[in-house]
Amino acid sequence: MTILVKDASVRFGAFHDCFFIVCNVVKDVWSRHAPGIHPVITSANDAKHMLGSLHYQDRGWDFRTFTLPRSTTDLIVKELKELLGPDFDVVLEKDHLHIEYDPPQ
Fold this sequence. Notes:
By secondary structure, this protein is of the alpha+beta class. It has helices at residues 18-33, 70-84, and strands at 4-5, 40-43, 60-64, 88-92, 96-101. α1 runs antiparallel to α2 (70-84).
């Protein structure tokens, strides 16, 4: 399973170490629940996000979900939350899955 990037509009700033963990967990979970459908990063440190978004601190990525049935997406979100733990927020938005590194202070 390969994680793809939508296109050249997706910009990565500094690559925070935590996203090596995210990549491994995302690939594992996606391959179990959506074999044959590669996860696609649609945004990192680019585009327009909320004021204060962790995207702008290189700690937030968005993944495409429209290629997945809603029931599969729900399973992926549940498992990602469990496996990534409390240092990560995993949020299913209307048109994408947002994962950010946001450890408790």
